[in-house]
Amino acid sequence: MHLLFSQHARRRMRQRNITEGEVRACLTDYRTRIVGVTSSVCIADAGTRSLKVVVAADRDGDTERFIITTAWRGDDDN
After folding, report:
1. Mean pLDDT, range 19-32, rounded to an integer
2. Has residue 58 got a pLDDT over 90?
3. pTM for the full model?
4. Which of the four pLDDT bands, split at 50, 70 and 90, describes residue 62?
5. Alpha helices in the chain (DSSP H)
6. Cα–Cα distance for residue pair 75/6, rounded to 1 Å
7. CB-based contacts of 16, cutoff 8 Å, min separation 6
């Protein structure tokens, strides 16, 4: 799966110390997925924390994902 990141997602990842590997793991092994019309939210455990990744609606099936933003669940009201 090819991941594309918005500038916003990259900034948030740097601020929150979230790695691309953690994002990829969240998208492949999530415990909760909320599907919307324009985006989906995947939530997965990453060690002792939960990671939330917001992804744009599928652009190319399962081969490409556009990451809108990322956050540790519970931080910044997430």
Report:
1. 94
2. no
3. 0.87
4. low
5. 7-16, 20-28
6. 20
7. 70, 71, 72, 75
